[in-house]
Amino acid sequence: MAAEELITGQIVTVKRDEGDVIVWRTTAGQVVACDSRCPHQWAHLGNSGAVDGEEIVCLSHFWRFDREGTGSKLSASGRRDEKSPIDTFEIREVAGRLEIAVPD
Ligand code: FES
User: pTM here?
Assistant: First the structure.
């Protein structure tokens, strides 16, 4: 996909037989590629995810993942509890297009 088509806060699903990947752009403009399935209860982040700053949040139970895939959940008091990580993939822009390095 064209890099400029991915706007801030947008989440795009890349369909694959081996499992979908999602690509999203953080508020700061960084592009991230990660597994589409939340490691908690397998919600599809392309349908039930939202970008919040530099993280993507699973709206099913509010686990959140940073650009490196580190998982956490914020309590009502602001405490951040560690959660399972999500797989992330190398992504780069080549001649205006985004290329994802996903293992087979
Ligand atoms: S399925 Fe994602 S937080 Fe529960």
Answer: 0.94
Domain boundaries, the chain: 3-101
For the domain covering 3-101, report its CATH number. Answer: 2.102.10.10
- Residues 35-53: tens digit of each pLDDT: 999 999 999 999 999 999 9
Residue 13 and residue 100 in contact, taking contact as beta carbons nearer than 8 Å = no
CB contact at 8 A, 104 and 18: yes
List, in order, residues 6 or more apart from 8 with CB less than 8 Å away.
25, 26, 27, 29, 51
Residue 96 alpha carbon to ligand 1 centre in Å: 33
CB atoms near residue 31 (< 10 Å): 16
| Alpha-helical runs (H) found in 1-104 | 45-48
How much distance in Å is there from the Cα of 103 to the middle of ligand 1? Answer: 24
List phi, psi (to 5°) of 68: -90, -5
